[in-house]
Known about the structure:
Layout: E1 2-7, H1 11-22, E2 27-33, H2 36-46, E3 50-54, H3 62-70, E4 80-84, H4 90-98, E5 102-105, H5 110-121, E6 126-127, H6 129-141, H7 150-156, H8 159-169, H9 174-181, H10 185-199, H11 204-213
Parallel strand pairs: 1-2, 1-3, 3-4, 4-5, 5-6
Helix pairs in contact: 2-3, 3-4, 8-10, 8-11, 9-10
Amino acid sequence: xxxxxxxxxxxxxxxxxxxxxxxxxxxxxxxxxxxxxxxxxxxxxxxxxxxxxxxxxxxxxxxxxxxxxxxxxxxxxxxxxxxxxxxxxxxxxxxxxxxxxxxxxxxxxxxxxxxxxxxxxxxxxxxxxxxxxxxxxxxxxxxxxxxxxxxxxxxxxxxxxxxxxxxxxxxxxxxxxxxxxxxxxxxxxxxxxxxxxxxxxxxxxxxxxxxxxxxxxxxxxxxxxxxxxxxxxx
Length: 234
């Protein structure tokens, strides 16, 4: 059972997301919060498998909550899925730098949200397809996610770690990487544990952005938006 905390300052969003998640046989909503302070307190008390956080919440914003739950000083580290109405703004980049496991827009299809929660619980990062190209482009052109250069990092990676990085950038889960390389899942996890510090990143999602940023893999072409879906800020 995947234990989930939901935090959003809008009652309708809290109720809708809680109902969506709670209707699944393998997901249980163990806590609901209406502001950041409450979300942080509940997360530390209940230690959910995934915390679904809005970005803009009263008393403490979702970025600060995420930093305390999954940042470098968090203990235990709780995976965070950010759900936002803003398709690109500085909050999203701050969340990525904090080490969140995934981003989705609030108007994502219900199946996308359910899939994201399951992916994150399974150790796999999630990015809304509409955000991926723009986030990667922003980091490539203007930002630095971390100080480790591609040349230096790739010198430190073993051949197997390099293979895993490429498969990670394709969006594969640990299980899919293990099957592709004919190794055990525990072996993949061990390689990831050693690989992330070499890249200077803290999460799988940051590793994927690092791979695109440093041209280890090519930036994907953006998919077409579904008809009638407005991607502008609200």
